[in-house]
Every structure is written in structure tokens, then in C-alpha cells.
């Protein structure tokens, strides 16, 4: 089975002085029926990549195939790809139902078929009761559902979603994340989702591509990316991380405290950085810890408590502990404390 | 590699737009070019010369009409701008008041009523007064021009006033300024670009008017446009082009200055 | 409301009317007052040498569209007037149509330029608009007259042997009016077009619409208010045009404006001229009111 999307050495350079390279040689393969997320900060090129796939932009060089056929000659209205726009881009002069039926109408479907599919789509996103409303008369969440139904109605092979949840409030966003995942499973359509919200990406995706500066830094499942970040950028962008500068000794590294830690993937010598997630480390007595320092601040956050520690060499280190009904703080600010973590949670990073 | 798909493109639109700009400017450019023709044709180029400017300059009728046009435009701009400033102060930044619709309708009447209708109405009314008083001077033209210039002066001033920060005046009032001091020290300096823009617009509109002037003027009161209209019946020489070019120069300068003035931020 | 605030409100109201007085005096004297007198004149009897006799008569209104046969005194439609009305409406509609065909793509072109260039392009539209209407009509006249540039060039090229008579035809009037009123079409369409969200255009392409359908189903409906505004703004002055038909039509192809003037010149029928003026004014007001209503509806729908 051919892949849904295959990009090879895909480049996009905007002319100007100096020219701006928005995408520099992207290599990507997206499987059929996959929920694939492009994740990165604004300006990383993720939206440009999405617009290249939709056909609103044209690459400077490289190839872009959909199910084995090149997309480059096809204008947007000839691609079986639909987009959910960040601004929704609902037609203000049409009703909800007319918006959802627009794509089918443009494809020349019969009136009966348009009505049937539109009805079906409105069921799917629970908007049937508002079919005849103007799009300006419905709420943001409802507009979002209409945009989704409109893009799904022509049964595209690929659905592109450009930060579709960013305009919604927190609670609605959480619901829509689950709903999007359900829709993707139900329809079997390949979803390509663009977001700068790492939590959103982790929640919904089958696989994630982390991007920065027009390049892909890492592609993998949410778990791979969180537990085994490939480089410092990925580790920093996904979740919270403590970075420790250590000296490599082949199979182990030496910490600033002088203690040794057996890790995999460290070079034979030289300085490297290891990353330790806050929830993977524990506070202990000063003498038992791999590292020691002064507890500067204890922040109670309801579900968790954060401990901010200044290590002996001045580096900041944060630990996170889940709260249980019977746990007291145990440590107070000003205490000298030790920090410990299992060797396998420490990730050696390439810079 | 194929060229990308441009969502903003519509087939043929750029061609039509270019044709539109050519159509807008070609006649004007030709008009200007032939004003420098050494021959007396408006179509066959016989070399460069200032001849027609010189002949227009020496033409006594043109001199008189020019002076008359400028006098009328000056007074019309001054009067219409002054009353427009007062009217704008009275009608901007206030709650809806009784009679507001009527006031706006009256101010904008010259914009909505076809010029020929206004011209005829003025002809009728001023004919009555001329018979009653015997006075046939320039005042009729000045008042008629002032009236139809009011909306042109009013609109930019009003726009400027609406964009002004009310809290500045409140601050001045808080600092013991009297209403007149507030107007002179706070409102007027900020309003100035709007007033200047309105006055320039009024000046150009008055200078360009032909229909109303043609109906209101008494014998021997030709302005530059009505003089030109009269000349069109005869054999046309590039002298008309020369006069047109001069008038065009004034208008274009004023419009560009107006555009720049409107862009000055508060 | 306390007494103090009532006094304050009264003082404000008095100041407002004081400030408005100079403008209103001028406008009453030289705009609305004369219009009322014109209305009165339309109900008077024509004087023998121009002017009026102060005697009530509906003859003028009667002759706007009717006439009495000179020989047998029977009533009939006034063919001369009706054909002039018809020509005015026909030429104004054609002018509006041509302005729309040229103006719409031009406004679209400007609205799709990079933001920094748009002001420059719009200035190019605005400059002719603020330059003398007489001069612009004159510029077009020079272009198409028998000894003008177009004929001279065509004859020199050997395309034609004799100049084509373009001046003093309906074509010349339309050309002249399109030329002078075109900016009035471009300005409001551009204003709507500039607010157009091009994401909607992208969305339409994304949903399989062709260029033609994007234009018809998305762009046109969304800029409709601008198109209506532009059409009215061109139609209204075209209908009341006086200078352009006089110069380009050369007295052969009269429009309402010229017919009105005639009554104050050779016609010596001031009441008829007044009645025709009021008729023209009424038509224009109906058009403007239709526009205001259409614009209002749009606002409600999109508000």
C-alpha cells in the first residue's frame, strides 16, 4: 500500500533580500489512516508544509506524492485533500448546511446526494438542529464543528487541520481533542494536524513530527518523543526538562557532583548534556543523592508539588511530585537536599 | 517545474485593470503633451514650444477668468471651511439630538442633488433677487460656491474630530482650562490637518465647477471653466490644452497634498 | 435628572445650534431654499420671455410627459420628452454596466496587490476623480474627434480613408461618462474587496471550486454591497449629467440635464424646467433610498 504522503527533499524559499528559507529539504512519510501531527513553535515551517500539501503554495524544489502520485501539477481544487482552516473560513453569506454542502456541489454531486451527505455530516458533528443558521449566528465551538463537517463532507483522502482548536477555550479544546480522535478512527481518513501545543499533539497523534527552523528534528510516536527526545530542542519543546552538563566516559557519565551514572549512547569522552524529566527525579537526603543543592522554592499546584533546587554549581533543577492525601511537604525552602533518579531515565542528547 | 497555483489570480483581470489605467491616463497625458505642440493641431505633433502657454498668458479674457476663478475659490474655501469647522464641532462627538437627520441632510444636500438641479434652482432664486435688488456682482457666485463646498470641507474635518482622543480635552478641563482655551490650545492644533485638507478640497471643487457657475453667473462673469466651455464651440487650438494643463497641475498638487494631510496621525 | 443637568443640557443644545447657524444660513440661502422655490415655480405659468407669471398652473407638470397636438388639440404622449428620458436612462445604465465591467477587475487587481502598493494604485484612481470634469471630458473629446489622435493615427496607418464620426453620437456620451465616473465605481468596490478574507477564497478552492465558481459563488456575493454602491454612485450622476452630453453629444443627443437647460434658454419655459428638475431629483432620491435600504439590510445580515 502506497503511503498517504511522501515528501522528498522538499524545499520552499521565499524570494526577497535575503531570501527566506521556510522549509529546507523536508523528508517525510505519512501512512494511510494515520493521525499525524506537525508540532513546532510559530515560524518553524509547519504551516508552510501544510499549505504545500493543500496546494496553496508551490515548493521551490523536491517531490510531493499522495498515494504514489505527484501532487505538484494539481491545483488545490483538483486535490482530494480538504482543509480545516485556523480561522475556519466559513462562508458568511451561506447557511451552515450550504457551507457543508459546498464542496459536494462543486464536485457536481446530485441535489439528493448533497442533501443526504450534508445531513449525515451534521449528525456526525451534532449540528443538525442549526442547519439553517447563518454562520455568524453560531458560537465559536459550533463554527469549528461546521468547518470540520465541511472539510469531511466530500470524503477527502487526507484532511489537513491548521491549528483548528487554538481559538477555543480550554474546556472546549479538551472535548474537541477527543472528538477529533474519534472522528479520525470512524472515518478512516488520514489526518495531518498542525499545532504548537505539545500537550494537544501528545493527546491525539499516532505519530508526531517535531519541527523547528524549517527542518524536522524528530519523527516518532508520542511516547518515543517524550521518553527519548533526539536532541536538546525536542527535549526542551516537549514537556519540562532538566539539562545537566556531564563528562562522557563511554558506558557511563560523570556528574558535576563527581558521582557516576551508567547510561547508553554516551560518546567515549568530552562534555555532553543529559536530560532528566522533573517527574522522574526524587528528593532524598543530601548525602544519598546523585546531586545535591539548596531547595529554593516549593510550589503547590493541586495535583503536583514542584521543588525548585539550586545545585551546587548553580544549575537550576526542578522536581515534580504527585500529591497524595497523606503526603506533607516533607522539605521546606532553605533545606539542603539530595536528588536521585534511575540511570535509565537520563537521556543523552546531541546538541 | 510548473508554476504554483495562485489563489488571487482571476483570468483576464490584470489585463482589464491595466487597460483601465491606460484609459484613465492616456487622454490626460495626450492633452498635456499637445499643450506643448508648436503647431495648432491637437493630433499632429510639430515640435515642442511654449507658444500656447504664452498666448493663453497674454489672452485678456483668460487673465480675467483666472483671477475671477481664484477669487471665488479663495472666498468659497474660506467661508465653507469656517462654517464647516463650527458645524463639525456642533455635530461630532455628541449624543443624537433633535433635528440631527435634517441637519445632516442639509449639509450633504449638494452631494446628493444633481448639479443641474441645484444650478437651475439657484438660477431661479438669484434671478428673483437680482430683479429685486439690482445687484449683479460676484457675491452670488461666492455664496453658491460656498454652499456646495460645505460638505467637502465638512467631511474631512468631521473625520479628524471623530478620531481625536476625548480624554485630552477632559485632561485640559481638569487642569483649569476654560472651554475657549481648550478649543484654542487642544482641539484646534489637533484639528489643523483636517481643516487644511477640507479647505484644499473646497478650493479644488470650487475651482473646477462649471455647471452651477454657468447658470448663476451674470454677463461678463466667466470663470476659467465656463470660459473653456464657451471656447469648445469654436475651432480648438492647443491654447485650451495649455489652460487645462495649468488647472490640472493645481488640482493634482492639491489632491496629493490632501492625501498626505489625511494620513497625518493624531 | 437634577435641575443642574437639565440646565447643562439646555446650554449644550443652545451652543450646538449657535455653531450650526452660519452653515445652515448659507445652505438655506443657496441650496435648500432655492429648491423649494423651484418646486413652487413648477406650479406657475410660463412668462412670454422667460421667467414666470404668478398664476397657478399644472401645465408644466402636464408637459413633462404629455403634449397637446398643435393642429387638432388632442392629448398625446410627448414623444420628444419620452425619448430623451429613455435615452438618459439607457445611456446611464450602459455607462454603469461598462464601469462595472472595467471597474470590478480593476478594484480586484488593486485589492490583490501587496499592502504597501495598494495606496499608490488607489491614488492613481483618485487623482483623475478630483481633477476637473470639464478637462477630462475635453481630453476624451480631443481623442475621438474627427481631427483627433485616434482618427489621425488610423488614417495615417491606412486603416481608414475618412475619419470615423465618433463625436456627437451616443457612443461618445457613454465613453465620456464612463471616463469621468469610472473612479466612482472602483472606490466602493475596492473598499469591500479590501475587507475580503482571502482565506475564504482558499477554502473555496480547497472544496473543489474552479476559478469561475470562486468568483461567482464566493467573491461576488461577498463584495455585493460595494458593487451596488458603485453602481448607484455611477448611475445617479450619469442620469443628471449635463456637461458630458453637451460636449460629447454636441446638442444632438440630449439627456435630461440638457432638456432642463433648454427650458431656461431657447425654450423659455421656466415652470417646465422646474418641473423637469424636480422629476430628476425625485428619480435620484428613489435610487439613493433604494441604496440606503440595500446597504442597511446588508449590515443587519452581517452584523
Protein described:
The complex is a heterotrimer of chains A (about 350), B (about 270) and C (about 300). Chain A contains eight helices and 20 strands. Chain A has helices spanning about 45-55, 95-105, 110-125, 140-150, 170-185, 200-205, 220-225, 230-235, and strands at about 5-15, 20-30, 35-40, 60-65, 70, 80-85, 160, 190-195, 205-210, 215-220, 240-250, 250-255, 260, 270-275, 280-285, 290-300, 305-310, 315-320, 335-340, 345-350. A six-stranded mixed sheet of chain A has the order 6-7-8-3-9-10, with helices on both faces. Chain A has a five-stranded antiparallel sheet with strand order 13-12-11-14-20, with no helix packed on it. A five-stranded antiparallel sheet of chain A has the order 15-19-16-17-18, with no helix packed on it. In chain A, strand 1 and strand 2 (about 20-30) form a beta hairpin. In chain A, helix 2 crosses helix 3 (about 110-125). Chain A starts with a strand and ends with a strand. Chain B contains eleven helices and no strands. The longest helix of chain B is centred in the N-terminal third of the chain and has 32 residues, at about 60-90. By secondary structure, chain C is mostly helical. Chain C has helices spanning about 5-40, 60-65, 80-110, 115-130, 135-145, 150-155, 170-195, 200-205, 210-240, 245-250, 255-265, 270-300; strands at about 45, 50-55, 65-70, 75.
Defining traits:
heterotrimer, A: 351 residues, alpha+beta, six-stranded mixed β-sheet, five-stranded antiparallel β-sheet, 8 helices, 24% helix, elongated, B: 266 residues, mainly alpha, 0% strand, globular
Write the layout of secondary structure elements.
The complex is a heterotrimer of chains A (351), B (266) and C (303).
Chain A: E1 5-14, E2 20-30, E3 35-39, H1 46-54, E4 61-66, E5 69-70, E6 81-84, H2 96-106, H3 111-124, H4 140-152, E7 158-162, H5 170-187, E8 190-195, H6 198-204, E9 207-212, E10 215-220, H7 222-227, H8 232-237, E11 242-248, E12 252-254, E13 260-262, E14 271-276, E15 282-284, E16 291-300, E17 304-311, E18 316-322, E19 336-340, E20 347-349
Parallel strand pairs in A: 3-8, 3-9, 6-7, 7-8
Antiparallel strand pairs in A: 1-2, 1-4, 4-5, 9-10, 11-12, 11-14, 12-13, 14-20, 15-19, 16-17, 16-19, 17-18
Chain B: H1 13-34, H2 51-58, H3 60-91, H4 100-112, H5 115-133, H6 139-162, H7 166-174, H8 179-208, H9 211-216, H10 224-231, H11 238-263
Chain C: H1 3-41, E1 44-46, E2 52-56, H2 59-65, E3 66-68, E4 75-77, H3 79-111, H4 115-130, H5 133-144, H6 149-156, H7 170-194, H8 198-206, H9 211-239, H10 243-249, H11 256-264, H12 270-302
Antiparallel strand pairs in C: 1-2, 3-4
Amino acid at each position: 500500500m502506497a503511503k498517504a504522503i511522501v515528501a522528498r527533499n522538499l524545499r520552499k524559499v521565499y524570494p526577497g533580500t535575503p531570501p527566506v528559507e521556510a522549509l529546507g529539504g523536508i523528508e517525510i512519510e505519512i501512512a494511510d489512516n494515520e493521525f499525524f501531527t506537525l508540532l513546532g513553535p510559530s515560524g518553524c515551517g509547519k504551516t508552510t508544509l501544510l499549505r504545500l500539501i493543500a496546494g496553496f503554495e508551490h515548493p521551490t524544489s523536491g517531490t510531493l506524492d499522495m498515494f504514489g502520485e505527484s501532487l505538484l501539477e494539481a491545483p488545490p481544487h483538483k486535490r482530494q485533500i480538504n482543509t480545516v482552516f485556523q480561522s475556519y473560513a466559513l462562508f458568511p453569506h451561506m447557511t451552515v448546511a450550504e457551507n457543508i454542502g459546498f464542496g459536494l456541489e462543486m464536485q457536481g454531486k446530485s441535489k439528493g446526494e448533497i442533501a443526504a451527505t450534508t445531513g449525515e455530516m451534521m449528525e456526525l458533528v451534532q449540528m443538525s438542529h442549526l442547519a439553517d443558521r447563518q454562520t455568524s449566528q453560531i458560537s465559536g465551538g459550533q463554527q469549528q464543528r461546521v468547518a470540520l463537517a465541511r472539510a469531511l463532507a466530500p470524503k477527502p483522502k487526507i484532511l489537513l487541520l491548521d491549528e483548528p482548536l487554538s481559538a477555543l477555550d480550554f474546556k472546549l479544546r479538551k472535548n474537541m481533542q477527543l472528538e477529533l480522535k474519534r472522528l479520525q478512527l470512524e472515518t478512516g481518513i488520514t489526518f495531518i494536524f498542525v499545532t504548537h501545543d505539545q500537550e494537544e499533539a501528545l493527546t491525539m497523534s499516532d505519530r508526531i513530527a517535531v519541527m523547528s527552523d524549517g527542518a524536522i528534528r524528530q519523527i516518532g510516536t508520542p511516547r518515543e518523543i517524550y521518553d527519548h527526545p533526539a536532541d536538546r530542542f525536542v527535549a526542551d519543546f516537549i514537556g519540562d526538562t532538566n539539562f545537566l552538563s556531564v563528562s562522557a566516559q563511554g558506558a557511563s557519565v560523570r556528574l558535576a557532583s563527581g558521582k557516576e551514572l551508567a547510561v547508553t549512547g554516551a560518546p567515549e569522552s568530552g562534555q555532553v548534556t543529559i536530560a532528566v524529566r522533573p517527574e522522574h527525579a526524587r528528593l532524598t537526603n543530601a548525602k544519598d543523592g546523585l546531586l545535591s543543592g539548596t531547595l529554593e522554592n516549593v510550589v503547590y499546584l493541586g495535583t503536583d508539588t514542584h521543588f525548585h533546587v539550586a545545585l551546587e554549581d548553580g544549575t537550576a533543577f526542578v522536581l515534580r511530585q504527585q500529591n497524595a492525601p497523606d503526603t506533607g511537604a516533607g522539605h521546606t525552602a532553605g533545606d539542603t537536599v539530595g536528588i536521585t533518579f534511575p540511570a535509565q531515565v537520563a537521556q543523552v542528547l546531541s546538541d | 517545474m510548473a508554476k504554483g497555483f495562485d489563489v488571487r489570480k482571476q483570468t483576464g483581470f490584470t489585463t482589464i485593470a491595466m487597460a483601465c489605467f491606460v484609459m484613465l491616463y492616456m487622454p490626460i497625458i495626450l492633452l498635456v503633451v499637445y499643450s506643448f505642440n508648436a503647431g495648432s493641431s491637437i493630433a499632429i505633433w510639430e515640435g515642442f514650444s511654449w507658444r500656447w502657454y504664452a498666448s493663453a498668458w497674454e489672452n485678456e479674457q483668460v487673465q480675467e477668468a483666472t483671477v475671477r476663478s481664484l477669487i471665488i475659490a479663495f472666498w468659497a474655501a474660506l467661508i465653507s471651511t469656517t462654517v464647516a469647522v463650527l458645524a463639525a464641532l456642533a455635530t461630532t462627538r455628541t449624543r443624537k439630538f433633535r433635528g440631527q437627520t435634517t441637519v445632516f441632510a442639509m449639509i450633504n444636500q449638494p452631494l446628493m442633488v444633481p448639479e443641474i438641479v441645484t444650478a437651475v434652482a439657484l438660477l431661479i432664486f438669484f434671478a428673483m433677487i437680482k430683479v429685486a435688488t439690482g445687484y449683479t456682482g460676484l457675491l452670488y457666485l461666492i455664496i453658491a460656491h460656498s454652499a456646495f463646498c460645505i460638505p467637502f470641507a465638512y467631511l474631512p474635518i468631521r473625520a479628524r474630530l471623530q478620531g481625536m482622543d476625548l480624554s485630552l480635552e477632559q485632561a485640559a478641563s481638569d487642569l483649569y482650562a476654560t472651554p475657549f482655551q481648550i478649543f484654542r490650545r487642544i482641539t484646534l492644533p489637533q484639528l489643523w490637518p483636517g481643516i487644511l485638507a477640507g479647505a484644499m478640497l473646497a478650493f479644488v471643487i470650487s475651482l473646477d465647477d462649471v455647471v452651477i457657475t454657468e447658470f448663476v453667473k451674470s454677463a461678463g462673469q466667466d470663470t476659467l471653466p465656463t470660459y473653456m466651455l464657451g471656447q469648445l464651440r469654436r475651432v480648438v487650438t492647443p491654447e485650451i490644452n495649455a489652460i487645462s494643463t495649468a488647472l490640472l497641475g493645481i488640482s493634482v498638487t492639491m489632491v496629493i497634498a490632501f492625501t498626505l494631510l489625511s494620513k497625518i496621525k493624531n | 435628572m437634577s435641575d443642574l443637568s437639565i440646565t447643562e443640557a439646555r446650554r449644550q443644545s443652545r451652543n450646538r445650534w449657535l455653531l450650526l447657524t452660519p452653515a445652515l444660513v448659507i445652505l438655506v440661502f443657496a441650496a435648500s431654499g432655492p429648491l423649494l422655490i423651484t418646486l413652487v415655480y413648477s406650479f406657475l405659468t410660463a412668462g412670454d420671455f422667460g421667467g414666470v407669471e404668478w398664476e397657478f398652473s399644472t401645465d408644466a407638470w402636464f408637459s413633462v410627459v404629455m403634449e397637446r397636438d398643435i393642429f387638432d388639440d388632442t392629448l398625446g404622449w410627448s414623444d420628444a420628452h419620452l425619448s430623451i428620458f429613455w435615452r438618459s436612462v439607457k445611456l446611464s445604465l450602459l455607462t454603469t454596466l461598462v464601469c462595472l465591467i472595467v471597474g470590478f477587475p480593476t478594484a480586484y487587481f488593486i485589492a490583490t496587490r501587496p499592502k504597501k502598493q495598494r495606496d499608490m494604485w488607489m491614488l492613481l484612481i483618485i487623482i483623475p476623480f478630483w481633477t476637473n470634469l470639464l478637462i477630462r471630458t475635453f481630453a476624451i473629446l480631443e481623442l475621438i474627434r474627427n481631427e483627433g489622435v485616434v482618427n489621425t493615427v488610423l488614417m495615417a496607418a491606412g486603416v481608414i480613408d475618412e475619419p470615423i464620426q465618433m463625436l456627437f453620437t451616443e457612443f461618445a456620451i457613454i465613453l465620456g461618462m464612463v471616463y469621468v465616473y469610472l473612479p466612482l465605481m472602483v472606490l466602493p468596490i475596492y473598499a469591500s474587496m479590501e475587507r475580503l478574507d482571502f482565506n475564504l477564497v482558499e477554502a473555496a478552492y480547497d472544496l473543489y471550486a474552479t476559478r469561475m465558481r470562486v468568483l461567482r459563488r464566493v467573491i461576488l456575493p461577498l463584495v455585493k454591497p460595494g458593487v451596488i454602491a458603485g453602481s448607484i454612485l455611477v448611475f445617479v450622476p450619469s442620469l443628471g449629467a449635463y456637461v458630458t452630453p453637451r460636449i460629447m453629444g454636441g446638442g444632438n443627443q440630449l439627456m435630461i440635464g440638457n432638456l432642463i437647460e433648454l427650458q431656461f434658454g431657447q425654450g423659455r419655459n421656466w415652470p417646465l424646467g422646474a418641473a423637469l428638475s424636480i422629476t430628476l431629483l425625485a428619480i435620484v432620491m428613489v435610487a439613493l433610498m433604494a441604496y440606503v435600504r440595500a446597504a442597511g439590510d446588508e449590515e443587519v445580515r452581517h452584523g
